[in-house]
Amino acid sequence: DVHWADDATLDSLRYLARRVAGLRAVVVITHRSDELSADHPLLGLLGQLHGESFHRVELDPLTAAAVAELAGESQLDPVELHRVTGGNPFFVHEVLAAPGTGVPRTVRDAVLARLRHLTPEAREVVAVIAVSPGGLEHRLVEELTGERVGALAEAESHGILEGSDDKIQFHNELARRAVEESMSHAERRDINARLLDALRVVDTDGARLLHHAVAAGDTDTLLAEAPEEARRCAASGAHRQAAAWFKKVLEHEDGLEATEHAQVLHEYAVELHRLNQLEDAARAAERAVAAWEGLDDATGLGRSYIELARNQHFLGETDAAYESTQRAIEVLESGGLDDALASAYSSFAALHVWRHAMSDALPW
Asked: From CA 211, how far away is CA 128, in angstroms rounded?
């Protein structure tokens, strides 16, 4: 493992390299090519190893197909496993050996061992990028760290970061997570807060802002932006993400205005139903009904009664579904004819049909 070899070891290898061709022997030396900076002393030795007696073997990262083969019968998604590990064989092996435990301790120790060789300036750059999944634009790195070229080049030469024309990122997601998890809560919170402030002045997507708002403990931004982000997710078919954002908002529901609180509960119930989480959907719908009860909004209350009835029906609570639908009709008829009332009539008709009471269904 010569990328950590000292001068004496390198001198010994130079001596051996001049004589090994005449011996009945094979010498195998290994090194991590992504840890060799331009001034690394090993490069001098490697430049001397040439001729018929020397053979180099370049090892590429594992392909997606190779990772899938290694994953075998495990419950892990091989595509996601390849993405987070970058095809690093050691990382793949360790994740497979300890599935469901987050970043394996062995991986975290290996990544942090590389960090110990960095200067404080380079470690600061690494820490800032660690809180940003998908990497960070050069301008933002410079704004948050006053980043000098040398610090970034140092982190790249040690195989921790890699740069492109538009951003800087970790070699793989697992290494990023290992660094992020190694940071103190206070450090993560501070970096995310500073990054959030920097992102506010640029045109960026809501999900990215919210990711850092949550990590920074910025509840005001969460409550202001997350409901609309959840609605955008729902409209695009990303129902699991929509439900996750509604759930996150409801963890801070005391900060919501009353009507918005009721609406978020209703939409959360809708998204949970789409995910077939019927019991949770029914509970959310019950809470939405309770929230609307204290407001002067017949349409909102009626819609939540309909949503409650839908989940009660699928849970086999037929009588309760009848009562909820009847209540929806009573509430909505008081407000005049509209599409919500039409939906309630349709739901009541369907309940009769499922009971094979066709003649009762027809009027509705």
From this structure: 14
Q: Give the side-chain half-sphere CA count within 13 A for 338.
A: 13
Q: What is the DSSP string of 45-106?
A: HHHH--STT------PPPPHHHHHHHHTTSSS-HHHHHHHHTT-HHHHHHHHHSTTSSS-HH
Q: What is the pLDDT of residues 157-171, one digit of tens each?
A: 878 888 888 899 998
- Quick one: residue 217, left, alpha or beta (phi over 0 = left, psi -120 to 50 = alpha)? left
The pLDDT of residue 101 is above 90: no
Nearest to 243 by CA among 221, 219, 226: 226
Q: What per-residue confidence (pLDDT) applies to 148? A: 67
Stated as kind and residue range, the H or E segment containing 8 is: helix 7-17
Residues 159 and 170: their CA atoms lie apart, in Å, by: 9
Q: What letter represents residue 246's amino acid?
A: F
Tokens of 262: 């009721």
Q: Rounded to 5 degrees, what angle do the CA atoms 220, 135, 130 make?
A: 70
Distance between CA atoms of residues 111 and 159, nearest Å: 10
Summary mean pLDDT of the chain: 89
Average pLDDT estimate for 317-331: 92
Residue 309 has pLDDT above 70, yes or no: yes
Q: Give the largest CA-CA distance in the chain.
A: 100
